[in-house]
Amino acid sequence: MDKKYIVSPSPHIHADTSTTTIMRDVIIALCPALLVSVLVYGWAELLVLAVSVASCVLLEWAVTKWLMKRPSTVGDLSAVVTGLLLAMNLPSAIPLWIVFIGAVVAICIAKLSFGGIGQNVFNPAITGRVFLLISFPAQMTDWMPTPGFITVPDAVSGATPLSALKEALKSGSSISEFLDANGYTAASMFWDIGASAGEISAGALLIGFVYLLVRRVVKPWIPLSILGTMALIAAVFHWLVNPELYTGPAFNLLTGGTFLGALFMATDYVTSPMSTWGGVIYGIGIGLIAMMIRYFGAYPEGMSFAILLMNCTVPLLNMWFHQKKYGRA
Amino acid sequence: MGKLTFSMGGIHPHDSKFARERAIEQLPLPPVVYVSMAQHLGAPAKPVVAVGDRVKVGQVIAEPGGFISAFIHSPASGTVKSVAPRKDLAGNPVVHVEIAVEGDEWEPSIDRSKQLVTAIPDDKAAILDRIKACGIVGLGGATFPTHVKLSPPPGKVAECLIINGSECEPYLTSDYRIMLESPKEIVVGAAIMQKVLGGCRCVIGIEENKPEAIRSMRAAVAELGYPGIAVQTLKKRYPQGGEKQLIDAVMRRQVGSGGLPIDVGAVVQNVGTALAVYDAVQKNMPLITNVLTVTGDRIPGNLQHNYRFRIGVPLSFVVEQAGGIPDTAAKIVSGGPMMGKAVSNLDATTVKGTSAVLYLSEAATRRRPETACIRCGHCADSCPMGLEPFLLNRLYKAADLEALEKHAAQDCIECGCCLYSCPAGVPLLDNIRQAKGQVMGVIRARAAAAKAAAEAAKK
Question: pLDDT digit string (tens) for B395-450?
Fold first, then answer.
């Protein structure tokens, strides 16, 4: 043979899916929710998104190039995903320098200091968000709506439903009084609820998630076990313990970061278990911790903490749970 | 019954059966053929001809070198020029018998007519002897001697003979073509094996992407009327034709680690093997020809062929007859794109198990550069053995043989699904192959030590 031909072991063909195409699918899946949040919160929201994504991408590029001296991993789009998810966890009125600090924590500390993509223990976007929540509690819980491109009649007060509820319960009102006073119905909560950008519409998030399911990027077990656990706990406390002290399943599933967390944050490949059963245990843990924080904790919202805590258990779950092997009991 | 498939893992690559409409052509004979002595699983055969001997087509030129081994026959008539080591596909030296082709004079005992013979001999032992004497080996890939597979050890009973017509490897069309062109011969071959195995049921499994083959085989089964033979449609899913996967699909049983199909009552034979068995038993025709596909991606139709070739024809001759290597080819593969071997040496000869010459373009075959594992789990999802390739890869790098054995590296069937589906281009199978070899070494050493200890205890 005069010409040189490639000689390498089988298989000789490969799937089209790459890390980049997977991340691109996640970005596409986030689009409906992004669209809703930009429509509702306007230019301010767009700016938060832009600063968050740009910061994450630039930081990843700079750190890999100058500090880690490695080929840049910006091309795999994972930094864009982190940037989008971080921004979707922030109020639109937040000062932009705080967004940048969140990006530093997410990319430089949570992701790259562990070795970059694939190596991090904690979900970068959630780590960034929790850092900001603890460091800048005032700015992070200021839900003054910024002027949007459309007006949503029944949503958007100064506080998220979860924190407003916490306040209401403290001041002695009951849950039914609170819901009536604010005009919350299941339908309004599904489509639009005042909260951080990504939390605004469970419906839009669900549409995106269905896209990921169809594209076989994610499997439904983790979200199902989180949502199932939360619904079960809420049902027990609401109907069996005290309906005026504990909110019910619909309220808990459709408010706060439940959908964003369950569908897009807890399903992060790197920080969730590999096996189906490991994923189910992980999901149950997240649901349990989130509900305990909501019912009994100081914070109105518990998704972020729950996911971070369960991130810690992933190496253990990976060690304990394996998939069923062919021909073995 | 609906469409069946195996229960875990698998992938769905594009089937790329571009050569499916090309009828089988006879590949002419080159001036010289080289017959390898190592073209079956097990011990190499021992040559029984010497330089200068005149041989006829179908004459025995080598005898089995062990229990698991096979006879080899001359694919051409002529003079033996040498019996010497020659480079095989991978460049390793293997003894070959070189024959200068003179005319085309056949052993007179071989029935070369096209007449279909449907009456099956009564004597099972005679049938087995004939299959052995004709050098029949499994043509589905592993080239395991067929007579050994058809002789279950005492205490084991075959409950189902599965004839593998799934041809799940993309690009390959040779099994498809024989199912269209020789369906009755295949069914007779299956009935012969069914008889040898004691009359168990027989299922011919064919993937749904070959409806014409399913129709053709169904018609042949109906017309010939042997009892207990059925054609079963399988879903299109690689590696459906893997022995363990096919048993899972058809019988809903799984072969234990290190076990044999017969442990769960199964015997699996390829459609090509069934045809060879027909030829051997009904026509006294030894295994001196097989069908291969010449195909590839982005190559013109006139370079695509299905050939019946004499076993021992050099690959370079096949390529030349088929119209030469297309300019777009960046890799030449002997066999399918998932499990075939890259050809480094086109002078290498064809062997009993050769199924294709595949030209792949740079775009089709390029591996993406390796990036970090993102723990997506696609490798584990696609593994038809239920293994966790990402874990095995990590354990291999840590050289943890004990954990590799615990996580069943030795069960890997090297189908390539993990490496095919990895989005980060991690060379999973490359490493797991090495790991498997090491673990098998440990298991064999342990078995040998246990045997030695048992013998020492006896004394």
Answer: 999 999 999 999 999 999 999 999 999 999 999 999 999 999 999 999 999 999 99
Same domain for A135 and A28, yes or no, is yes
Q: Strand B78-87 and strand B60-63: pairing?
A: unpaired
Same domain, A31 and A170: no
| Confidence at residue A154, expressed as pLDDT on a 0 to 100 scale | 47
Residues 6+ apart with CB under 8 A from B260: none
Whether the pLDDT of residue A187 is over 70: the answer is: no
In this structure, are A63 and A185 located in the same domain? no
Residue ranges making up the domain that contains A94:
19-140
Residues 6 or more apart from B444 whose CB is under 8 A from it? none
A192 and A278 housed in the same domain: yes
Distance CA B143, CA B273 (A): 9
> Å from B80 to nearest chain A CA?
26
Both A92 and A222 in one domain: the answer is: no
Residue A198 has what pLDDT?
Answer: 58
Q: Please determine, for residue A107, whether its predicted confidence score (pLDDT) is greater than 90.
A: yes
Integer Cα distance of B152 and B67 in angstroms: 14
Chain B hits for A325, CB-CB cut-off 8 Å, are 385-387, 408, 411
Q: Which of B13, B248, B255 is facing A13, going by the closest CB pair? A: B13
Report chain B's C-alpha Rg in angstroms. Answer: 22
- Identify whether A329 is part of a domain: no
Domain count, chain A: 2
Tokens read off for A263 = 């569908």
A26 belongs to a structural domain: yes
Q: Under an 8 A CB cutoff, do A325 and B339 touch?
A: no
Low-confidence stretches of chain B (pLDDT < 70) are 1
Q: Is residue A60 part of a domain?
A: yes
Whether residues A43 and A189 share a domain: the answer is: no
Q: Which of A1, A3, A22 sits opposite B423 (nearest CB)?
A: A22
